[in-house]
Amino acid sequence: MFNLLDSAKGSHATTFLVASLVFLVLKQFFTSRKMAKRAPGPTRWPFLGNALQLPQQQMWLTFSEWQKTYGDIIHVDVFNQPIIIINSSKIAKDLLDKRSSIYSDRPHLVMAGDLVGYSDPFVLQPYGEKWKKQRKFVASDFSPATMPRYYQLQETEVRKLVRNVILDPDSLFSQTKLRIGTIIIRVTYGYYIKGEQDPFLTLPLTAMENFSKASAPGTWLVDFVPQMKNMPSWMPGAGFLKTAKKWRKIVWDASWDPYNWCKNGLETGETLMPNLCGSAIQSAADGKLSKEDEEQLVWAASAIMGGGLDTNMSAALSFFLAMVLHPAVQRKAQAEIDAVIGCERLPSIADRDALPYVRSIITEVLRWKPPVPLSIPHSLTQDDVYEGIFLPKGALIMPNVWHMMHDPTSYPDPSAFRPERYAGADGDAAQRRVHELVFGFGRRACPGVHFAEGTLFALVATVLATVDVLPALDAQGREIRPDPKYSSGTITFPEAFPVRFSVRSEQAETLLAQVPAGPM
Ligand code: HEM
């Protein structure tokens, strides 16, 4: 009896062991890449893949349409380069945030990176030692604790912007460029921009314009057929090589000229406002950086300057557009500012906590028109499987942030501009959810987020406190309602629209007049 029981127990144990092993092997098999299937997507052509189906204009809208047919993860191929489009915020976070150790590389862009040189600044740097060093250079200057150092500069420059556009509403776009450029260049190099034609402003602006074109996915054949970069420049079809050469010089000059100005200023003892490059040089041993460190600092600073220009300008201009279209939102925000700040002073960034409706306007601008609608693509460094879907090593990962921000299940009536979405007890969390997506993912998330939020708050609060933003009038005195049209490219802007400003009170005019004209 005893022996029988023992052997019965033994056979149970063996069965259990075998069953467990079979289960583990099957589990491994079903979750392995062999069983995982590729994500759905439009039908591919041999060799070309989906090249002909990728739209040239505002890709995010097409990808959003495709979501209805193919779902939240879409796989397309362009000349054998796999591209994974993600239309869901949950999946984007599951992959890019939670699995960031393998999703933090950047795609190797032959045109933008190898040929023009945009892979030197850390925005496009591969995930590696140079990228880490550059992020380290900027980490403390752009941490939340450092932000108050910049408040006065941010507030002063946006006040000048408002004062100038009241006098000349047609200068809205150029003034926005000038003031946002002045802010970011001052904190990066200590240099104060002398005017719209200052090369320290025009060069990086041109470099950013070119960046948007050079990095727009699917635009350059050489990105998919890298051998083309070696073709002789006289050959038909090699025009892109001439373009790349011209653009490369602009990137170089835009990055090294202001750096050298800053370095020389330190050497000659010229007083400079605390700035990223100056502090990094001064904190190096003996005040001298190694050649390698200097190079990485130049590119880190260039990334910060570039990152802080067009993105902020896009959001600022979308804000003005939203205000022209939504007078009721303006009135509600003005009532909040009048009640909290009064008319004796202008709002400051330190007032942020006390102005929740003003904050929710900023969030709604970023949701309504995200400045970087497809974020900046990441690249996957090893094969991966997500819920039975195979994601290949080297795939370009494109989070369609525009779609996430216009998903009607999260944002009913998504094309409506409605800051009230963030009212109520969940308001702050709802705002955070927008910012977390609009400013990017995982280890590559935007290092300038706090700085950008400060500049935008200073702008939005100052504008609403001092002026009514109104539609321009036509020759018959009728209001011209602008049609919100946006550019394509990595960073998207509203097309120029007519606008009018009316000062809200004499006190507002007096307060703006007191802002000093020169550098601070
Ligand atoms: C409204 C303003 C801004 C928006 C919407 C924005 C958005 C973004 C996005 C979507 C990315 C890509 C994140 C990813 O790959 O997952 C990014 C990266 C970056 N941003 Fe911003 N940004 C803004 C302002 C700024 C400012 C003010 C700075 C500089 C002070 C800045 C510097 C950078 C840099 C250097 C990167 C590259 C990060 C990396 O690759 O490691 N951005 N930003």
From TrEMBL:
Pathway the protein takes part in: Secondary metabolite biosynthesis
Sections of the chain in a coiled coil: none
Example of a GO MF term: monooxygenase activity
Membrane topology field: Single-pass membrane protein
Keywords linked to the UniProt accession: Heme, Iron, Membrane, Metal-binding, Monooxygenase, Oxidoreductase, Transmembrane, Transmembrane helix
Reported cofactor(s): heme
Location in or out of the cell: Membrane
List of residues binding heme: C446
One cellular component (GO) term of this entry: membrane
UniProt record similarity statement: Belongs to the cytochrome P450 family.
Protein name: Cytochrome P450
Organism for this UniProt entry: Ceriporiopsis subvermispora (strain B)
